[in-house]
Design brief:
Shape: elongated
Structural class: alpha/beta
Strand order of the largest sheet: 1-2-3-4-7-8-9-10-11-12
Low-confidence stretches: 355-361
CATH class of the largest domain: Alpha Beta
Distance between the termini: 12 Å
Number of strands: 12
Largest sheet: 10 strands, mixed
Oligomer: single chain
Length: 361
């Protein structure tokens, strides 16, 4: 197993629906048994095989050993005044990850994590503090959605959308990501429409091409944050490996190959990337492309020096883009009072010593 690989555990939630059906038949179980388990896991959201009462106990015992259900330990839970909820969830090996529930007028959205920590190194983000510990398995990513849905079941609410924008770079954990997406969208999985799921990348060019070739209806979001190489490299060291020209070529390939609009994420930082000149350069960079720019007033992170752009300057930035024909919105802030931005809770809890995260060897 490589340094950053997920533990080799065959969680039931780590198999795509069709792969799960094939696996159980190969293991000697009746074909219908796989669908019974799927119904219990994704339909009824049980947390143990003991609750699967229409399956013989002897078979449940075997399944529980071979294909356990992941257990996420709720180490911390913060609730915002706006309805946002953030969890710090412990994994079986002692690591901790964050998952966030956001409530919107149109429903409940879950932001999931794909890695423990992050090695991309964005200088404005808390996720990268401490570097990358390991990838999550698909089953651990799925488990985050199930954890949130179990809470929502109590109030008869439903996860209606997912954003893969938590800690880590999803495209550095590509196979697990693809399996996760297949489970989320399958009618016998979580049955969430693909167009209600967004995956964010910092611009891992080869995987952007691979994702385009899937021709998925899942929305792709590109974290851009700067309109030129010099500034983007300062903010996002990954730009050294994948310069802006290559990233934009991959973005154009995605749009041409899928026919889908690309979301551009741009975190506004006071006096860093938020001047009118930056807006003009961004508009020029995106000219003629099928994109939507999502401006994000940067969250204050204790370990980072960046400040939030004043409202008047945000409005001026928006005005430039719209005048140049670029579809633009400003992300509505949620969970600011509970440090809901990526990595903030984990970083603060670990720094306090209240929870000690495992360290990869």
């Amino acid at each position: 197993m490589g340094r950053f690989d997920a533990p080799d555990v065959s969680y039931v939630t780590g198999f795509g629906v069709e792969a799960w059906r094939e696996r159980l038949v190969v293991d000697g179980f009746a074909a219908y048994r796989a669908d019974q388990v799927l119904s219990w896991v994704y339909g009824k959201r049980v947390s143990s095989y003991a609750e699967m009462t229409n399956i013989p106990r002897a078979e449940r015992d075997v399944l529980a050993v071979r294909y356990p259900l992941p257990v996420l330990e709720e180490r911390a839970k913060l609730c915002s005044r706006d309805g946002t909820v953030k969890w710090l969830l412990g994994l079986s090996d002692g690591h901790a990850i964050e998952t966030v529930l956001m409530r919107h007028r149109y429903g409940c959205s879950v932001c999931v994590t794909t890695q423990v920590g992050c090695r991309i190194g964005c200088t404005f983000c808390a996720s990268t503090i401490g570097g990358l510990q390991r990838n999550l398995g698909a089953g651990e990513i799925v488990a985050q959605v199930l954890h949130v849905q179990r809470m929502l079941d109590e109030t008869k609410e439903r996860v209606s959308s997912i954003v893969v924008m938590g800690s880590g770079e999803p495209f550095e954990n590509f196979d697990a990501l693809v399996t996760f997406l297949s489970i989320m969208t399958h009618a016998d999985g979580m049955a969430i429409g693909a167009r209600h799921i967004t995956v964010s990348t910092s611009g891992i060019v080869p995987r952007m091409i691979d994702f385009a070739r899937l021709r998925s209806q899942v929305t792709l979001a590109l974290s851009l944050h700067a309109p030129d190489d010099a500034l983007r490299t300062q903010l996002m060291p990954i730009n050294r490996a994948y310069p802006l020209a290559d990233v934009m070529d991959a973005a154009k390939y995605y749009i041409a190959h899928t026919g889908r609009r690309l979301t551009i994420e741009y975190a506004l930082m006071r006096d860093v990337n938020d001047r009118v000149a930056h807006a003009e350069a961004l508009a020029q960079l995106l000219k003629g492309m099928l994109v939507h720019v999502n401006l994000i007033p940067v969250n204050t992170v204790r370990e980072r020096a960046y400040e939030r752009t004043p409202v008047a300057d945000v409005q001026a930035f928006v005005a430039v883009l719209r005048r140049r024909g670029i579809n633009t919105t400003v992300r509505r802030e949620q969970g600011h009072d509970i440090a809901a931005a990526c990595g903030q809770l984990r970083a603060s809890v670990l720094a306090s010593g209240a929870v000690r995260d495992a360290v990869a060897e």
